[in-house]
Specification:
The chain is mainly alpha-helical. Among the domains are: 97 residues, no CATH class; 61 residues, no CATH class. The chain has 11 helices and 2 strands. It has a two-stranded antiparallel ribbon. A hairpin with a 6-residue loop joins strand 1 and strand 2. The longest helix has 49 residues. The N and C termini lie far apart (127 Å).
Length: 336
């Protein structure tokens, strides 16, 4: 068996592979719209969280007691709870502030999706500029309704052509947004076991229109989107709230120290009072009972008694400390 080899002067041509063509942009998949809506709802929830935090940081009547004079009684326990609630609101607001980079990333994705799902070519546009009237095209409405009705295996209306035409006409007259109609059709497909009536389709459109109101507010308005609008307001609310909380904590600490000193002094006085002879204690309490009278009824009965009894009665009558158990403190509540 002989082998053949190519000649040295062979004119064989190298095969040149054609370059790869650029990949075409794939159409959106069916589930992409669900992801678009889910992303929008997460952003709506986030903005609602930020709004609640801003409202919580407007303390209004929470800390009115800060400006009250020291002799006014305040509920220290309630004041402590108010401070704890305010600090919790600050923590929540700071958590929301840290989430704004996430929000901006998802908001950018939302805006890109809106440009696709609510693109201009889906509408019939009359006029120009801000006065332009956008109506979802009859072709888009017809396609959506055809897909909707075809999704039900038992879709057998008595006059299918008339029914389908009237659904299209009713929806077209309703003039829903492209995203609203898409959401409504998906909702009907997923919730109904039987072909919907025209009323059910219109009701689904109405419901989805309300749901989309908050989602549309995420978009730019006069060049400002939801993140641009709420972030500086949240930062300002935090900046204004923190000094108020610090002032409240200082005031509460002063009030608690004063209350503690008064309580220690009261306990010390009570202990000294309990060490007095029984006769003096009884006389003091009798004086307290008679304090509402214009003339001490039992004063004469204490004249000539053992030393201190009459003084104790008169002290109770005049609402003064009983002589003897006065307790002096060094300002911290400790006896000296």
């Amino acid at each position: 068996m002989t082998k053949t080899v190519p000649l040295k002067n062979s004119t064989a041509v190298d095969v040149v592979q054609s370059p790869k063509l650029p990949a075409t942009t794939p159409q959106r998949r069916y589930g992409d719209f669900d992801a678009f809506v889910a992303n929008a709802d997460k952003l709506v929830d986030f903005i609602a969280w930020v709004g609640r935090d801003i409202e919580r940081l407007v303390f209004d009547d929470w800390f009115e007691w800060i400006e009250k004079p020291d002799h006014d009684v305040i509920d220290l326990q309630r004041a402590k709870q108010d401070i704890a609630s305010a600090k919790s609101a600050i923590d929540s607001a700071r958590g929301a502030l840290a989430r704004f980079p996430w929000a901006r990333k998802h908001l950018a994705a939302f805006k890109r999706d809106v440009k696709w799902y609510d693109r201009r070519e889906l509408y019939e546009i009359e006029g120009k500029g801000k006065r332009a009237k956008w109506t979802l095209s009859r072709r888009v409405v017809a396609e959506q309704i055809a897909l909707l009705l075809a999704s039900f295996q038992n879709s057998r209306p008595g006059t299918p052509k008339v029914f389908g035409k009237m659904v299209v006409e009713e929806v077209y007259a309703k003039n829903p947004n492209a995203c609203v109609l898409e959401s409504a059709c998906r909702r009907v497909r997923r919730e109904k076991d039987f072909p919907p009536s025209i009323a059910e389709v219109l009701k689904a459109i109405e419901s989805e229109s309300s749901a989309w109101c908050d989602r549309w507010e995420l978009q730019d308005e006069n060049g400002v989107d939801a993140a641009d609008y709420f972030r500086p307001r949240l930062e300002q609310a935090i900046a204004e709230a923190e000094p108020t909380i610090a002032k409240a904590e200082t005031k509460l600490a002063e009030r608690e120290a004063r209350a503690k000193a008064i309580e220690e002094q009261r306990k010390a006085y009570q202990e000294a009072f309990n060490r007095l002879p029984q006769a003096e204690r009884d006389a003091y309490r009798s004086g307290e009972i008679d304090a509402g009278c214009s003339d001490p009824k039992r004063c004469a009965g204490y004249i000539g008694r053992e030393p201190g009894v009459l003084d104790a009665y008169l002290a109770g009558f005049t609402r003064k400390p009983i002589p003897g158990p006065e307790v002096k403190t060094n300002g911290s509540g400790q006896q000296h």
